[in-house]
Amino acid sequence: MADSPADDLTEAPLPATPNFTCHLHPRRESFEHGLLPIPKLIFTDGVQTLSHAKSDLLASSSNDRVNPEIVSQVLQIPIEHSRLLMQTLSAVLQDDSDSLVAAKTSEDIDAIGANVFDLLVLLYIQSYKRLLPKGHKDSAAVADVWPSTSAFDGFLSALSPLQLVRSNSRKFVPSQTDEEAHQLSYLYKHMPNILELLADSKDVDSGDSMVLSMDKFEHLGLLFYYGERGSPKSPLSQNTPFFANSDPDMPAVPVPASQVLDWFLQSISSSLDHISDRVSLRENGPSTSSDQDAAMTDVNATSLKSSSSSRGPSFIEGISKSSYGLKAPDFKGSSVKVVNCHESVIYILAPLKYATVYGCSDATIVLGAVGKAIRVEHCERVHVIAAARRVCIANCRECVFFLGVNQQPLIVGDNHKLQVAPFNTFYSQLEEHMTQAGVDANINRWDEPLALGVVDPHDSLSHPAGASDVLTESATCLDPDHYTSFMIPNWMGTEEAGCTKDNPFALPDSYLTSQMKNLKNLVEVKQSLRETQLDESRKRELSSALHACFKDWLYASGNIRQLYCVHGG
User: Fold this and answer.
1) How far apart are the C-alpha atoms of 376 and 356, rounded to whole Å?
2) Dihedral of CA 550/556/561/562: which sign?
3) Residue 425 near residue 486 (C-beta atoms within 8 A)
4) Contact predicate 85/41, CB 8 Å
5) Residue 341 pLDDT level (bands cut at 50, 70, 90)
6) 9 burial type by CB count under 10 A (0-12 exposed, 13-18 middle, 19+ buried)
7) Within a 10 A sphere around the Cβ of 60, how many other Cβ atoms?
8) Which single residue of 107, 337, 417, 539 could bond 356 by disulfide (Cβ 3.0 to 4.6 Å)?
C-alpha cells in the first residue's frame, strides 16, 4: 500500500471534534529504544510485505501470539534476530501486564511469544528516520534523523563521537520538541497504513470495508499516550469519542477504520499546533535554564545540574568537573537522560524504566536499576556502571561498561575500543530497587555482547553500497587484573536503611580470584609498612613516593574524577 491514505480509510465523515484540553503525544520510548539496525526488518513498501507477514503469522497462531521460531520463518531472519526483536518489543511495551514483559530468558520468550499486532506495529516503525541536525548537508535529501552519523559519512567521518556532539552546537541540535514534532509528523503520514495492519475486513454491504475493534485499537498505545506525563494513565481507547466509557463486560462495537483515522489525524494536527504555539511562546518570551524542551546544551556551557517535569524524563545536563546524584525521591517520572557531562561522576540511585546517556566524556555514571532499557550514545572514555534488563551502546569510544544485565548488551554504530566487565558496586537499597525495576541478579550476560551493523539504517545519511553489511567493532572483556570495586560515597545516602551489603551479582571465578588477590596484596602491604623500621626522613621519602604513585594511578585509571565529590558534591 502506498504512503498516501487508503481509499477505504478516508471517505467516512469526520467524527466529533476531539477534546484537546489534553493532547496526543508520541511514546518517545518506542522511537528511542525500539529501533533495530537490522535491514531485513525495515520495510519500505508500505504495508505490502507486512500484510503478507500478518496473514502468515496469524495462520500460525491460535491465540494471536507467536514464538521466535515462527517469526524467524515468516520474516526470514535468523532466530537470534527474532528473539532480539521480541526483547526489543518487551522493552517498549506500554502494557506491563503483558507476560512478555516479565520474560527473563530465551526459554521464557520462546514459551510466551509476542502478540502479533504489537509486533506488526513495532515492525512498521522500523522505517522511521531520526531527525537530522539542523543545517546538515543531507537535510534536503531526507527529513528524518536524530544526530547519528557513521564512519562512512564523508562529512563527519574524521570526528570522534565527542567531537561530533561538539560540532552540533545548541542552534543545530534538535530539541525534545523538535523530536516530538518529527515523530508526530511521521505518525500522521503513516497512520493509514498502521491502521490497515490492525483493522479487520467487514462485509462491504455495510458501507465500510475496514473496522477496528477496541482491543486492536489498544495496540496503538505502543505509539501514543494521551494527556500529560506524570498524570494517571488510562487506556488510549478511553480518550476517544467512540470507545470511551465502554462496558468492560460487554465488548465495544467495532468502529469504521476511517472514523478512527480521521480522529487520529485531527488529534495529531492539534498536537502539532500546540507544539508550534509552545515554540513560538518560548522564542518570544523569557527563557529559563530549566526548560526541558531546550536543545541539548553546548559542551562549553556552564553546569545546568538537573531539570525535571512531570511530562518528560529528568535531565542531568552539562555537569563538568563535579559530582552529582539523584535518589528515588528526586524523580517524578520513570526515566532519566544524562547529557553532555564531562570529567564528572554522576550517581542515579533509583529504580527507573529508561535511561539515556548522551555526549559524555571522561565521566563515571552509576545507574542503580533500570527495568526496561539503557541507551549510551556518542560517549568517550566513560565508565558506565549499571544494573539493567537491557543495554544498547551506540557510537562510543574507549568506554568501559560494568554491567549486571539480563539480556545481551547490544552494540551498534561506529564503536572503538569498548570493554565490558561484571557489575562492580552496591548501595544499601540496590536490591530493593532491582526488585521494583524487574532486574534479576541471577542472570548476568555482561560478557555476551551482540554486535550489529556499523551503519544505522534509521539515520538519513548517505552510505556506500555494501556498508550496511559491515558489523560494528564489538567489545572485549576487561582484564580481571584491572577490575576493581567502585565505592559509592556516604554523601549519596548509601547508609540509608536497606538490605544490600555487597554486590548482588556473582563474580566470575577469574574476577573473584583477582579481587581476592588484590585484597591479599593490600593486607600484606599494610602489614609490611607497619613492620618496617624507618627514620623520619625515610618515612617522608616513602610517603612522598606513595603519594606520587597514587596520583599517577588516579589520572591513568580515570579514578581522579571520584575525588570531585570532595570539591563539588
Assistant:
1) 6
2) negative
3) yes
4) yes
5) very high
6) buried
7) 15
8) 337
Kindly report the number of other CB atoms within 10 A of residue 112's CB atom.
17
Contact of 182 with 142, CB cutoff 8 Å: no
Which triple of cell numbers denotes residue 443?
542472570
3-state secondary structure of 17: coil
Exposure class string for 524-554: b at 16+ Cβ within 10 A, else e:
eeeeeeeeeeeeeeeeeeeeeeeeeeeeeee
Specify the long-range contacts of residues 185-191, CB closer than 8 Å, at least 24 apart: 185/272, 186/125, 186/128, 186/129, 186/144, 187/26, 187/223, 187/224, 187/264, 187/268, 188/264, 188/265, 188/268, 188/269, 188/272, 189/3, 190/3, 190/124, 190/127, 191/5, 191/261, 191/264, 191/265, 191/268
Q: Per residue in 210-228, is it b (16+ CB within 10 Å) or e — as a string?
A: bbbbbebbbbbbbbbbbbe
Which value, to the nearest 10 degrees, does the dihedral of the CA atoms of residues 324, 325, 330, 334 take?
A: 110
Read off the pLDDT of residues 367-412 as tens digits, 9 standing for 90 and up.
Answer: 999 999 999 999 999 999 999 999 999 999 999 999 999 999 999 9
Q: What digits encode the pLDDT tens for the residues 56-113?
A: 999 999 899 999 999 999 999 999 999 999 999 999 999 888 999 989 888 999 999 9
Under 8 Å between Cβ of 78 and 492: no
Say which residue the cell 603519594 belongs to: 547
Find out whether 112 and 188 touch, Cβ atoms under 8 Å. no
Helix crossing, 79-92 with 68-75: angle to 10°? 110
CA distance 325 to 322: 10
Sequence-ordered list of residues with C-beta below 8 angstroms from that of 330, at least 6 positions apart, any chain:
306, 308, 314, 350
DSSP letters of 286-298? ---TT-TTSPPPP
| C-beta of residue 210 within 8 angstroms of C-beta of residue 196 | yes
Element (H, E) at 450: strand 450-451
To the question of pTM greater than 0.85 for the whole model, the response is no
- Of 177, 176, 156, 178, the residue nearest 168 (C-alpha): 156
Alpha carbon distances (Å) from 477 to 296, 385, 482: 32, 15, 11
